């Protein structure tokens, strides 16, 4: 048997308490090392509110169809063959969507002889407020559309009043706004307008621009306030190549070659920033307009920030091509001398970081993102293998990951998962897809891929994943927690 000798052994034999203390110290060092190593490999996810206002499901395992299925074709288009019914869902109140129906022969981009024989009047009457977390129809409403060819629900316009829904329709070649009570579906008002809104670039939660002619480059447009849909607050000529920008109750637009501000309450038109703002290449966020000025018709290469009154908040001291996007902390601009994406601090205009983007044109944030990560994408409308997405830390500009191929066409994000839609398999279905992939937002690792059932499309309704087929909607839920995300305390 070997015995200890020497000063260290004698000290330990003489002081048993010291042996205990040293054992605790050794254990503490091991624990500290484990914590440090764990921190080094701990994935990082966002904690902020969802970008764009809609929180998306965070599905870390391939979802399955279970829980509920609702036959909305029977609710909205009774008597129509279910295979001919295409459901359109529009964000309405928080967590809910307003659903309408139309002929698949029209919305699908192809002709189905069995469906073209069905009169449009059987589709275009009803809407339903739907809860995609439970599969419940909360109420239905007959909108009284004529059923003439082309009669359709175009959109649900966001407003600052959560108690009402403004439904935009086209009926007999004229536009209509129907205001519904969000709680009961009761009709509050109906207004006929000479045209339709041209999409999200022509509206905010207070104001909407209606254009009577979608084909001409510059036509007479009317500005309406959601507080009074009977009478327009302003009439003028807007170029469709230069969409307006909205700063609260103010619309900034190009009229007769100069930038003007239109008060959405009174319709009073005044020059905006001396009338020299290049509105076409500008972007607004949080009540601030970011863009360039023009001099003698030539845009300057210096980006500025203006408030709703046209006062300059800052000027960035570097040449830029234009504003590519806006994030929580950055105004993202591109430079003429290099393929760089530059992050300017949105409060001061100071350069925070820059990255060489090559030929990737898009930069911004994903709808639903809870981080400040900036996404730069080169999308592919053909082979999805040609898609490339790079994700950068919005604070430092450090590249977090690159994803290519099937997972690269990112379109939305949960807290830890980004969702990629295969636009090649989705050419006929707008924002919906027959195929989807999920990407871990810390590493870029593909978590799962999903193919919709035969004839079904996958879609997010109010941030919740659903499968839609033959007028039936089924909730898609996480089958388990195969790739659990860390719990943020």
Automatic annotation (TrEMBL):
Record-annotated Pyrrolo-quinoline quinone repeat domain positions: 126-269, 301-450
Name of protein: Pyrrolo-quinoline quinone repeat domain-containing protein
Transmembrane segments: 21-41
Coiled coil stretches, renumbered: none
SUPFAM superfamilies named among the record's database cross-references: Quinoprotein alcohol dehydrogenase-like
Keyword Transmembrane annotated: yes
Pfam families per the UniProt record, alphabetical: PQQ_2 (PF13360)
InterPro entries: PQQ_rpt_dom, Quinoprotein_ADH-like_sf, WD40/YVTN_repeat-like_dom_sf
GTP-binding listed as a keyword: no
Domain of life where this protein originates: Bacteria
Key words, A-Z: Membrane, Transmembrane, Transmembrane helix
């Amino acid at each position: 048997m070997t015995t200890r000798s020497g000063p260290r052994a004698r000290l330990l034999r003489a002081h048993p308490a010291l042996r205990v203390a040293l054992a605790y110290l050794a254990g503490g060092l091991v624990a500290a090392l484990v914590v440090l190593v764990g921190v080094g490999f701990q994935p990082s996810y966002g904690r902020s509110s969802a970008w764009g206002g809609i929180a998306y499901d965070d599905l870390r395992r391939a979802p399955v169809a279970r829980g509920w299925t609702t036959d909305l074709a029977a609710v909205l288009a009774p008597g129509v063959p279910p295979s001919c019914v295409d459901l359109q869902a529009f964000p309405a109140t928080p967590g809910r969507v307003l659903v309408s129906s139309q002929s698949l022969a029209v919305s699908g981009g192809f002709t189905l002889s069995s469906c073209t024989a069905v009169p449009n009047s059987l589709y275009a009457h009803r809407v339903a407020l739907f809860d995609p977390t439970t599969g419940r129809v909360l109420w239905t409403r007959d909108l009284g559309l004529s059923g003439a060819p082309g009669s359709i629900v175009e959109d649900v316009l966001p407003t600052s009043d959560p108690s009402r829904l403004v439904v935009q329709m086209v009926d007999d070649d004229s536009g209509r706004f129907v205001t519904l009570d969000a709680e009961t579906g009761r009709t509050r008002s109906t207004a006929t307008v000479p045209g339709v809104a041209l999409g999200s670039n022509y509206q905010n939660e207070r104001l909407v621009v209606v254009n009577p002619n979608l084909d001409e480059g510059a036509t007479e447009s009317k500005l309406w306030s959601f507080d009074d849909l009977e009478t327009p607050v302003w009439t003028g000529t807007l170029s469709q190549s230069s969409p307006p920008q909205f700063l609260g109750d103010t619309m900034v637009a190009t009229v007769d070659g100069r930038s003007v501000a239109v008060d959405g309450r009174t319709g009073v038109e005044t020059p905006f920033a001396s009338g020299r703002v290049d509105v076409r290449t500008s972007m607004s966020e949080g009540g601030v307009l970011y863009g360039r000025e023009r001099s003698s018709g030539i845009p300057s290469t210096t980006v500025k920030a203006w408030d709703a009154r046209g006062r300059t908040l800052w000027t960035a001291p570097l040449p830029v091509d234009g504003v590519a996007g806006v994030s929580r902390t950055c105004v993202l601009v591109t430079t003429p001398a290099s393929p760089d994406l530059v992050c300017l601090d949105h409060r001061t205009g100071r350069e925070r970081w820059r990255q060489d983007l090559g030929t990737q044109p898009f930069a911004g944030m994903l709808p639903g993102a809870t981080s400040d990560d900036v996404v730069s994408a080169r999308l592919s409308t053909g082979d999805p293998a040609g898609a490339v997405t790079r994700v950068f830390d919005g604070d430092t500009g450090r590249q977090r990951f690159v994803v290519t191929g099937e997972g690269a066409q990112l379109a939305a994000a949960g807290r830890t998962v980004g969702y990629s839609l295969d636009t090649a398999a989705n050419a006929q279905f707008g924002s919906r897809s027959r195929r989807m992939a999920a990407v871990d937002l810390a590493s870029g690792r593909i978590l799962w891929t999903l193919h919709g059932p035969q004839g079904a499309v996958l879609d997010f309704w109010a941030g919740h994943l659903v499968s839609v087929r033959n007028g039936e909607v089924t909730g898609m839920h996480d089958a388990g927690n195969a790739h659990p995300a860390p719990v943020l305390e």
